[in-house]
Amino acid sequence: MIVRFLRLACLILIPTALSETALATLIQVMDWEDLVERSPMIVVAEVQSRDAHWDDRSRIVTDVTLQVTQHLRGATAAGGMIQVRCLGGSVGDVAMHVEGEPSFEASEYLLFAYRDSENHWRTTGMSQGVMEIDRRSGEPFVIPGGGGLALTQRVGGRLAPAQAALTKPTPMREVLTRVRSSISREGD
User: Fold this and answer.
1) Dihedral, CA atoms, 121, 45, 184, 150, nearest 10 degrees?
2) In Å, what is the CA distance from 95 to each residue of 23, 57, 88, 118, 130?
3) How far apart are CA 61 and CA 119, in angstroms?
4) In the prediction, which pLDDT does 13 show?
5) What are the angstrom distances between the C-alpha of 79 and each of 75, 82, 158?
6) Which of 8, 45, 77, 115 has the most CB atoms in a 10 Å sphere around its CB?
7) 22, 98 in Cβ contact below 8 A?
8) CB 148 within 8 Å of CB 42
9) Is 137 left (phi over 0), alpha (psi -120 to 50) or beta?
10) Which helix (H) or strand (E) holds 24?
């Protein structure tokens, strides 16, 4: 009995001791068509505020309020305000971090969002649906999203690494043209 217990303990403890800490959330990659199809709201918006708090399920969440500067899809027009909920944040001395959830550290983003089961706006595909806009060079560029995610796709019944919808900084006009083209193919 003791030998059986020790074998079981070794089978559990040795792999645990040798394993590395996970630094990403494994998720299926979303291409442009997936992001557009699954996002009833697509906007360019600027962060106005962040509010981290405990939700009714005892999780720390951060509600990010953004002002829409360009409307691509959805009911919120330019100038309107939206609120997006993300898992994680800091409340007092307690912090919660979820790899792959967007943090909204910059000021302006291209945002793909959907309503969750609690009627909160959430980013489509976790951080895949949040792409920072960099205006420092004069012409605005969209920076790839997907931070904290290990993107995968099915190949021959197995998971294989995959590339994000946007793989390098791209002029904003090109990205918006691509998004509008995907929306028009859907018939919106």
Assistant:
1) -60
2) 17, 16, 7, 23, 22
3) 14
4) 44
5) 12, 10, 45
6) 45
7) no
8) no
9) alpha
10) none
Does residue 1 surpass a pLDDT of 70?
no
Q: So what's the pLDDT on residue 26?
A: 87
pTM, 2 dp: 0.84
Q: What 3-state DSSP class applies to 18?
A: helix
Strand partners, 171: 141
β-pair type (25-28, 149-155):
parallel
Tell me: pLDDT of 8 over 70. Answer: no
Quick: pLDDT tens for 47-103: 999 999 999 999 999 999 999 999 999 989 999 999 999 999 999 999 999 999 999
How far is the C-alpha of 124 from the C-alpha of 175, rounded, in Å? Answer: 17
- Residue pair 42/179 in contact (Cβ under 8 Å)? The answer is yes
Please count the other Cβ atoms lying within 10 Å of the Cβ belonging to residue 14: 10
Residue 65 near residue 49 (C-beta atoms within 8 A) = yes
Handedness of CA 85, 88, 93, 94 (dihedral sign): positive
DSSP annotation of 92 reads T
Q: Rounded to a whole number, what is the largest CA-CA distance in the chain? A: 72
Q: 10 Å Cβ neighbour count for 45?
A: 28
Backbone phi, psi, residue 175, to 5°: -65, -45
Q: Is the pLDDT of residue 20 over 80?
A: no
Query: What tokens appear for 171 in the block?
Result: 């002029």
